[in-house]
Design brief:
With about 220 residues, this protein is mainly beta. The chain has one domain: Lipoprotein localisation LolA/LolB/LppX (outer membrane lipoprotein receptor (LolB), chain A, Clam). The protein is built from 3 helices and 12 strands, in the order αββββββααββββββ. It has a 12-stranded mixed beta sheet with strand order 7-8-9-10-11-1-2-3-4-5-6-12. The longest helix is centred in the N-terminal third of the chain and has 20 residues. The chain starts with 18 loop residues before the first helix and ends in a 5-residue tail after the last strand. The relative contact order is 0.24.
């Protein structure tokens, strides 16, 4: 099962950044990013996902469309050849894998933990409460933030590349404890647009197996 990781990278550093300047930039970046997502009711975009792992011979790439609606609804549609549909309807998380004729069903709360990248992208998280944040880079047009969950549930490190122009997330990346890095870049973003309720509803198609993961 492909894990959902909502993800960004980091590595430049200003030539002579003074600690006071870095602290001010971090405060501004976190404040603007939090304010943007508090003001976001709905979000949809195209995405391109890349997964790299020490156990893989090469990167795995996929793409599709994603949508979120507060407080806890989301949908990911992955295009062929690796088709998959992931729907969070407010109570249940559905992961439909048509090529395997299988639907994985689990409580949405297990996916929407407060300190996961997915929940923050959906407008549910609080950066200042859930993460220890550092400023990796302060570029002319973007910030790169490294976020480490304070209550780490094996999530790893989250890195966000944030545009200064509108405080939107350009790229999100997660590095898990095993060294797997999942990156998602967004394009054609739309915020606060009407989304059909049916987008966040899912009924298993006839003839597919519905699998429930064992309780943790």
């Amino acid at each position: 099962m492909r894990r959902i990781h909502l993800l960004g990278l980091a590595a430049l550093g200003l030539l002579a950044a003074r600690p006071a300047h870095a602290a001010d930039a971090l405060h501004e970046a976190l404040g603007r990013l939090q304010a943007r997502y508090e003001a976001t009711r709905t979000f949809r975009a195209e995405f391109h996902q890349t997964v790299e792992s020490p156990t893989l011979a090469g990167a795995i790439e996929s793409h599709g469309r994603v949508a979120f609606e507060k407080p806890s609804r989301m949908r990911w549609d992955y295009d062929p050849p690796d088709r998959q549909t992931i729907v969070g309807d407010g109570q249940t998380l559905w992961i439909y894998q048509p090529d395997q004729k299988q639907v994985i069903k689990s409580p949405l709360g297990e996916a929407f933990q407060a300190s996961t990248p997915v929940t923050f992208l959906g407008g549910l998280g609080r950066l200042d409460q859930e993460f220890d944040a550092t400023l990796e880079r302060d570029e002319p047009t973007r910030w790169v933030l490294r976020l480490v969950p304070r209550n780490d549930r094996g999530i790893g490190m989250l890195t966000l590349t944030v545009r200064k122009a509108d405080a939107g997330v350009e790229e999100a990346a997660v590095r898990d404890p095993l060294g797997t890095v999942t990156r998602i870049r967004f394009s054609d973003e739309q915020r606060n647009v009407p989304l059909a309720p049916s987008l966040f509803q899912f009924t298993p198609p006839p003839g597919v197996d519905v699998v429930r993961p064992p309780a943790s």
